[in-house]
Amino acid sequence: MMTGVEIAVGYVCAWLVGQARRVAGRADAEVDRGLDAELDRVHALVSLVSRKLDQDPALQRAEEEAETGREELTQRTRRRLADSLEDAVERDEQFAAALDQLVEELQAGEPAAETGAGDEVEGHPARLRWQVEVSTTEDHPGSGDGDYIDFRHSTFHGPVLGKGTQNNYFGRVPAALPYQVGRIPPQANCFQTRAEAKRLAATLTGGGTTVVGSAAGVLTGMGGVGKTQLAAHYARSAWQSGEVDLLVWITANNATAAASGCAQAGIEVCGADPKYPQQAAQTFLARLQPKPQERPLRWLIVFDDVTDPADMNGLWPPASPHGRTLVTTRRKDAALSGHGRRLIEVGLFTPEESLAYLTAALADHHRHENGDLLAALAEDLGHLPLALAQAAAYIIDSRETVTAYREMLADRTEKLIDAAPDVLPDEQTLPLAAAWSLSIERADTLRPVGLARPMLQLTAFLNANGIPLDVLTSQPALTCLAHRASTSAEPSDEPVAVSPQDAGRALSALHRLSLIDHTPNSPQQAVRVHQLIQRATRDALTPRQHDQTALAAADALIAAWPTTERDTAFAQTLRANAQALVHHAGSVLYRPEVHTVLYRMGTSLGETGQATAARDHFRRITEAVLQRFDADHPATLTARRHLVRWEGEAEGTTGKAYADLVTDQTRVLGADHPDTLATRADLARVWGEWSPSGGQHVYRELLADQIRVLGPDHPDTLATRAGLAAVLEREDGSAATQLYHELLADQIRALGADHPDTLTTRARLARRRGKGGNAAGAAEAYAELLAEQTRVLGADHPDTLTTRADLARWRGEAGDAAGAATAYAELLEHMIRVVGADHSHTLTTRNNLARWRGRAGDAAGAAEAYADLLEHMKRVLNTDHPHFLKARSHLAHWQGEAGDAAGAAKTYADLWEHRVRVNGPDSSDTLHCRDLAAHWRGLAGDAVGAAEAYAELLEHRLRVQGPDHPDILTTRHDLALWRGLARDAIGAAEAYAALLEHTLRIQGPDHPDILTTRNNLAVWRGAMGDAAGAAEAYAALLADQSRALGADHPHTLSTQAKLAAKRGEAGDEAGAMETGHDLLKRLTRMLGADHPQTLTIRASLARMQEDAAEAVEAYARMLAVQKRLLGADHPDTLTTLNNLAGARAWAGDTAGATGAYAELADHMVRAQGPDHPGTLATQGNLARSHREAGNLEHAISLYEQTLAHCVRALGEGDPLTRAIRIDLAAAVAQREGRDEAS
């Protein structure tokens, strides 16, 4: 008996010959119509073999011989084809099983009675069922050489290549409409309605609008995304809804299959002759062309799984307003678009679709799983529909948990094929691991031949979500491609040269087959590849290939990684690729030495401000190194140094760790080894942070050794000089500045002006300018440096961003607060883009922006910025973090400054409670917050509450801090102040007396606060009605001011005036006169006799002496001076005019008083308005003056007018309103008395 391979070869050879004759359109008397009608039954077998042996020389030779019109293929070709097929069977068990199954099905086909042309079987015209039996020549004596295929229940009996008789074709009846050709694949279990389905419907139907010409849609995407299912869903819906009269489904996975499908449609729909398949196909396509005199034919043609656009040449259906064409393919070639055809990208499931599918698929088998677990599984599988379906089937069949399946997927020792179910769901033909094998094989045949597969292998170790083009076109990558550009399984011994252009074309080939997404216009993330394609690609590698490719990817990353990371987004992409490589490569990155990419990745993290992430990375690296090398191995010491550095940056405690490392390095490597010296530099820096003097000593010792070992111009030597200057800066700024200047000159000479260390020294010199008091010079220096750093390092480099922040700060310090705020606002946008909204440096920038907005006068903007800062801090920091609490305090402050005192009070009150919980009630921060809460409570209008809060705070501070703490005096002052503002004059006076006592004891009698406290004590003693006590306090204050400030100081003179007034109020006229006259002499000597202050004292003394004429003269002279100097409407001028009018009335000059009041009333109306209380009071005084002059009618009229204004503006209950009403009544009574008397 023949083997399955031999039988399959017989079928394939017979099919190739028969199909070639069909396409050629030649009559063949040796092959009867039974074979023509049933060749499609052999098609599945031929397709399987064609896919497996695609590009195999034996199969290509067989096809070429068949196309020449030969009646049979040569024995040599048949033998070579059998050898290739046998080899494929041995290498691929799944293929072997599929081949055996198809051969068995063909052999086991049930016989049917002979059927003539035009007969129907199972509803289809002229459909024959037949059985193929293959035998050797021994079974058929006399048959000649070769095997035979015996169609015993048809009309053909003869050898495989046929030696029969001519059969005539008598025609057949075309199928009645509606009609379907081909089988629509059944709908997958738990089918998900997707957005692509709507896009497909809109493309093919025109969204309800008229479609000129036929609508054609091409569903494209990687294998496994569900293109066929979407097409089947659309076709089934169109058929079931009656939208089409003719539906044709063609599995078009090669040119022959596509042509055969069209020919079969021509046979069934048009009654075409099956002996001429090419003509049948063209007859069918012509039938689709709309004809003016015929009823419109509504048709839908589906070409499923087109593998090569060239296969569709000559088979595209014609344009028709009633027709629709739908193609599914993995290809993205330009040939598939245009001519009215639209490519529709079919992507992955959305997370919601993935979750819905898994939930429904498992629920169908009574598996109800946790939604979070299923969502995680979907993420593991990259939301690929095919993967989700097979995963669900595996979990159901194996009865494993979702967690166990995820662990199997994550296990790098497991192959992806191990995660496939024994029986594939939804009539799937290939397990997930093999889903892309044919696409990879075809991509590898595209130009440049042989590069697509190794390129895909290289991408399989990098970041699925974006691989930079520079990595894949770097020299290490090109070298890897050159070694793998071979059809053999192992690297080529004679690599061919590969150019960057070749690498780009290889990427394009993979993109055309939907194996990757290649976007050259985004070079930083030019390539994206699905994680499961990566997994399947890695699984197919031998251990040697795996390690070689992983190391090549690592070398490629290092080659593309810039020394200076000018572009932080690019650096982030490189780190993401390095992280993916670490995950996929395994231990090879530690063999034979630790690969540089591991160190570069961690250093890049730290240098972008992610110190904690860098620390965690190097902890993992150090642990891995210690598992492979001993503690004294150089690799271990190097890993420790990186770890100690970033632990210090993240935690700030590295002194002992550096010291221990230096000890070990000295013992193992030697004291003069560069690594030992470098660690000593790190140790010196830490020493300098603890003790500037100690740090200087360590730096100087190190510097001497570096000059001896490395030389004076070595970068490390120069860096040590920079570190020495930085430590010295904390003790002697001018000396440090000198060192920086000397260092800068040497760095420019040795390293160049553009070296990052040189630029750093320039930044430190700019800072020294600012610290030295030249803020404008610092801003200018930073501006110049920023231009250089942007050019050299790039706008996104951390050093460039730091300089922008420093420039903004010193602009503000130089007086341009608004400019600083603007600069910080611009920097914030940049920081968000570069490092993210929640990065610590971004938060610092937000804080600085808010502060400078406030300093620029935009209190509301500052409050808004701090509120925004707090929202971002909540996502990054614990709300108990000191920075968060400090930001809340700033928010409260600027709320108050913006006019929202009540909001500030509430924020501070809430913050106080927060600090009590976090810091405790007795901490200085908590007490300060309590102080501010009381302060803003008072400013919000609750002076009584503020006074009570300060009283409680004072008691708390006395208990916690003691009576002599500086904060105690401040709190006593605030208590006294708010008692006064609460109109508690007695309480205020008592509080100021206590404050004075403690201030004298702690700060001494001449402290400026003593003078302020004495003044406030005098004020509030006077306010409580204790004129004598107030005079006593003013007398003590006068003595202190005379001693501390001098007798002629303005504050001293003001106190002397207040003392005279209070002595007068207390009844000590003699003391008041003595003090007043002494003050008058001083003012006359210092300011002149006509100075307003001199005249004021003179008038006051005149009133005290009851010398009305003297008072009138003094006020008159003062008024003239004020009108000249201040203007007639100045408040001080109007006050003097009012005093002059009163003095004239006191002197009995009623007419003069009336004139002065009238003049004052005019000025008040003009300056303050008619309803101002001062204006109304002046009008009342004017009316009284008219009344005293006997002008009762005029006085009453003025009183009535003034009273009406008072009622309207001040209300009935106002004291002035009541006084005017009383005066009016008196004037009316006076008039009535006068009338009665007359």
What can you see in these coordinates?
- The chain is 65% helix and 4% strand.
- It is mainly α.
- Among the domains are: 156 residues, no CATH class; 167 residues, Rossmann fold (3-Layer(aba) Sandwich), CATH 3.40.50; 84 residues; 129 residues; 63 residues, no CATH class; 89 residues, Tetratricopeptide repeat domain (Serine Threonine Protein Phosphatase 5, Tetratricopeptide repeat), CATH 1.25.40.
- It has a 6-stranded parallel β-sheet, sandwiched between helices.
SSE layout and pairings?
Blueprint: H1 4-24, H2 33-52, H3 57-67, H4 75-91, H5 93-107, E1 120-121, E2 124-125, E3 132-135, E4 148-151, E5 157-159, E6 179-181, H6 195-205, E7 215-220, H7 227-240, E8 246-251, H8 255-270, H9 277-288, E9 299-306, E10 323-329, E11 341-345, H10 351-363, H11 371-380, H12 385-398, H13 402-410, H14 437-445, H15 452-459, H16 469-472, H17 475-484, H18 500-512, E12 517-518, E13 527-528, H19 531-539, H20 543-560, H21 568-585, H22 596-607, H23 611-628, H24 634-651, H25 655-668, H26 674-690, H27 692-709, H28 715-729, H29 733-750, H30 756-771, H31 775-792, H32 798-813, H33 817-835, H34 840-855, H35 859-876, H36 882-897, H37 901-919, H38 924-939, H39 943-961, H40 966-981, H41 985-1003, H42 1008-1023, H43 1027-1044, H44 1050-1065, H45 1069-1087, H46 1092-1104, H47 1108-1125, H48 1131-1146, H49 1150-1168, H50 1173-1188, H51 1192-1209, H52 1215-1237
Parallel strand pairs: 6-8, 7-10, 7-11, 8-9, 9-10
Antiparallel strand pairs: 1-2, 3-4, 4-5, 12-13
Helix pairs in contact: 1-2, 1-3, 1-4, 2-5, 3-4, 4-5, 6-7, 8-9, 10-11, 10-12, 11-13, 14-18, 15-18, 17-20, 20-21, 21-22, 22-23, 22-24, 23-24, 24-25, 25-26, 26-27, 26-28, 27-28, 28-29, 29-30, 30-31, 30-32, 31-32, 32-33, 33-34, 34-35, 35-36, 36-37, 37-38, 38-39, 39-40, 40-41, 41-42, 42-43, ...
